[in-house]
Specification:
The chain is about 30% helix and about 25% strand. By secondary structure, the chain is an alpha/beta fold. It has one domain (about 5-160, about 195-240, about 280-305): Class I glutamine amidotransferase (GATase) domain (Rossmann fold, 3-Layer(aba) Sandwich), CATH 3.40.50.880. Strand 4, helix 4 (about 80-90) and strand 5 form a beta-alpha-beta unit. The longest helix is centred in the last third of the chain and has 18 residues, at about 280-295. The two termini are about 30 Å apart. The model has no long low-confidence stretch (mean pLDDT about 95).
Length: about 300
């Protein structure tokens, strides 16, 4: 089944050319089914790239997905055309005022790790978003900084600065093989990591109601389940394209920013060689499992979510 996207959204043609089933809203309206309503709160600077990455993953399941793009109300992006934002995004204030509900919500990362949460200009509104999920969203997926923000807000778990950037593809261990979110996962696999901060496993263990599903001896906890808040928190980047780490590395080199070659990414750690994608299959597994769990638990009458 396809993911429903506006025909003029750049992701529509990108995904269709990759073989992903996409459908325009007009076509979807003719089908006598209830698609899952999934929202993307996009906090990343490169909005279009991030849209493509997440639409690719959630659009690869047998279920029809109706994707909605949301932005913070007052925060203006500098890296994406205003016309694109005006055409495809709705401010959270309008979404909240409408009273509509969603089967799922993804809160992306943001390049503001160095700031304390309370110093982020849109933190107060993001707190409203996180509280709103408890009555208007069946399941929420916080990614990287978005996951750190959620686990901090709901459980008080702090983020900690690293002495050096965790950057590369790091081995991960499947800590919960029977979890429905890890159905089909190998015992070990790699995932792209790109962050200056970490969450400490001991502090997660001390918080009530949290369960770490994936972790690494090198870069700490990766995926945490918060059943009480119907949420998952992932601190790394399954959604990354094959060349996303390369783009970040090349950008820092061009800007003269000190940066290490991303670990375990280029063949023989040689940046002149084309990186290999060794996480794509597990990325599709994780987001497919998340969509399936939403489908199994969400009310058919979407108005019943949160009641």
């Amino acid at each position: 089944m396809p993911i429903t996207l506006p025909a003029t959204l750049p992701a529509f043609d990108v995904l269709r050319n990759e073989g992903v089933m996409v459908m325009s809203p007009d076509r979807a309206a003719q089908q006598d089914i209830r698609p899952l309503r999934i929202a993307l709160l996009n906090l990343m600077p490169k909005k279009i790239q991030t849209e493509n990455q997440f639409a690719r993953l959630i659009g690869a399941t047998p279920l029809q997905i109706d994707l909605h793009l949301i932005r913070m109300t007052e925060h203006l992006t500098k890296n994406t055309a205003a016309e694109h934002m005006e055409t495809f995004y709705r401010p959270f204030a309008d979404v909240a005022a409408s009273g509509e509900k969603f089967d799922g919500l993804i809160i992306t990362g943001a390049p503001i790790e160095h700031l304390p949460f309370q110093d982020v200009t849109y933190w107060d509104e993001l707190v409203q978003v996180m509280d709103w999920t408890q009555s208007h969203v069946q399941s929420t997926f916080g990614v990287c900084w978005g996951g750190m923000a959620m686990i901090n807000h709901f459980h008080g778990v702090q983020k900690h600065m690293l002495s050096a950037k965790a950057f590369g593809c790091f081995p991960q261990t499947n800590l919960a093989p029977t979890s429905p979110y890890l159905r089909g996962f190998s015992d070990e696999f790699v995932i792209p990591v790109s962050r200056w901060t970490e969450m400490k496993q001991a502090e997660i263990d001390a918080a009530e109601g949290l369960k770490t599903l994936i972790g690494s001896d090198q870069v700490g906890p990766c995926l945490v389940e918060d059943a009480g808040h119907r949420a998952l928190y992932i601190f790394n980047h399954f959604e990354y394209d094959s060349d996303t780490l390369k783009q970040e590395y090349d950008r820092d080199i061009a800007n003269g920013t000190p940066i290490n070659v991303p670990m375990n990414y280029y063949p023989n750690n040689d940046p002149s060689r084309k990186p290999l994608n060794r996480w794509r299959s597990h990325a599709h597994l994780l987001y497919g499992n998340w969509i399936n769990e939403i489908y199994q638990s969400t009310p058919y009458d979407i108005a019943e979510i949160g009641r």
